Each structure stands twice: as C-alpha cells, then as structure tokens.
Amino acid sequence: MTVTVRVPEELSARVPAEQRGPGLDRDAVRLLVSRGTEVTHHVFPELPRLLRAGDLLVVNTSPTLAAAVDGRIGHARVVVHVSTRGDDGRWAVELREPDGRGTTRARAGTHAGTEVVLPGAGRLVLEEPLSPRGERLWWARPAGDVLAVLRAYGRPIRYSYTERDQPLSAYQTVFALPSPDGSGSAEMPSAARPFTARLVAELVSRGVQFAPVTLHTGVASAQAHEPPYPERFAVPEASARLINAVRAGDGRVLAVGTTAVRAVESAAGPDGVVRAASGWTDLVVTPERGVRVVDGLLTGLHEPEASHLLMLEAVAGRAGVDRAYEEALRGLYLWHEFGDIHLILPDEGPHTERCDGNSW
Q1: Pairing of the two strands 38-43 and 341-345
Q2: Which of 13, 20, 53, 185 could form a disulfide with 217 if both were Cys (CB 3.0 to 4.6 A apart)?
C-alpha cells in the first residue's frame, strides 16, 4: 500500500455509535463511498439509496464469542484470547498480559509446555506455534470444555483504543446466527455492525437481496498486522446459486466485510462460478490473485499496515484505496470495529468490465 500516514489516536471509535448520543442507533455512522478514485460522503442510513434493485449483499452469519478469559501461569495473571478450534480438538490461542487499564498488551516468552489455568477448573497446555511465521498464536490442548468456560467466564475481546468493556450483544451483528456446535468468531465481523433490522427491511423492499455465508474469524493481529490465518468457512448451496444468478444478470455482488470476501472467493473456481463449499480456507486475497466474484465491498477502516488493505486493493485498485483513505483522514472518519464504514462500488465508466480475476 502507498498509504503511509498514521491514523491519529483521536480517530479511534471508542464506544459503539448508539452510545454517542440520545436517540442514536447502530446505523449512526458515516459512510465513505468510493467508485474508482471518485469519493463521496454519506451516512449509513443512505445505503439503500446507494444500491439498486438486483444487487446482492453477501453477509457473514458467524456469531461473536466471548473469547477473552482470565487465566494464570503459576502466579502470573494472563488473558487468553481464544481464536479457533482445530479438527483435532486443540484450540489456537493468544496469551496476553493485563495492562492495568482494563485491556491487554502483547506477552513475550511463551513456550511449548506452558500450562494455563482457566476459571472453573479448565486448563490449556501450549503445544506448538500455529504458524512458522511467529509465536503469537499457539495450538493448545484443553482439559475441559473451552466453549463452556467462555460461556461462563468469557467476555468479548477488547483492545486499548476502546473506552470500556461492552456486553456481548454490542458485538453481535443483525445477521449472526447460532452455530450448531457453538462455534463462532473470536472477533466481530464488524462491517455488518451498523445494519439494523429496519435498514435490512428497507433494502429488501428496494429489491436488494442477501446471500448468507459463514466465516469464523480468528484473533486479529493488533500489533503485528500479520496475514490472516486459516479459518473455518461455509458457503451454502442456496447462496452459491443466488450469487451465480446475480452474476449472470445485471446485479452486483457486494460483500459485507473482508470475511465475506474470503468466504465467497474461497468457494469460487477459476471460472468465477461459486460452488457450495465448507471447511478451512487459507486464501489470502491480494492484488496479484484478484477477485473472481466480488464487485464491491462494505468494510471498516483499517490501519495502513493491515493486510486487509491488500484485499481492498484487489477490489478497488491501489489508486482508489489511497484516494479513499486520504479522504477518510481529511474527513475525520472513525476507525476500528465501532467506527465508520467504507463502501467500494465498481467504477462503472464506459470502459469498465467485470473483474476477470486479475484486475479491473
């Protein structure tokens, strides 16, 4: 990315939109809209008027888990961020230290064999790093039911730019559905947070359709901005058919969040046809790989170093992302999961064609 500026601390959204003033709802956020390098400024309730009949929104139905829980290593206090359940019963976890302000900071010195005592007689034993890229996330063997521990003692993962702890309901989107096995996302699929039932109803009344997919997000890299790790996903047959039908017509396929992009692009063949799929995806969408299905994207504002920006660049092009972020900074838009939203629409000038998987 050529975006090299730092995001000022005061542009971090510290509380949910509905807590910023009386009478506000989740949709009380701003909406930056970019088409190529053209940028316009809106508010989120204007979304139905910015889309058109026949458009399709791909939404992530993963619920957010109370994925942070206190633990101890000997006499030392730690906070465990529980990320992803593996097929072998282990869990990927990140160990962090309390920072004295109600949040956490990175913890050094983690090693194989470390035992973490959890509330309710639960335990985790760290076995090996999740990836050779680093030792932030570890595979841990649990003694006891990790999901039961989270239900009883967990809280949503929170980072230092937020003002205070929030109830789990503040981290659930309107599209979240319970998973049969209790799985969910370690962190909220936050691009969907501003949607309300009222706004969804208005979109449907205007002919906008919805295709549900699932991608259980792992713990983000708050400091290191690493590429995403493999995550569980599912694209149902009905959603695959709907996406293909919209692509065959005049509608646009717009993903709500980078998680929805990862899921649907993982289910797309080189021919751009989406087929029902589920399991693990290690897909990293980059400008070199391109997008095969997605025409546009609703997303939050990401740190300039974040790997998510490569996905945005694959959808909008580098010049378009650079221009949008310049405007977001100039317009004092708010960042992070409670912040403002960026809508990337295809530049539909006379020479624009649907992406072929490599470029616009």
Answers
A1: unpaired
A2: 185
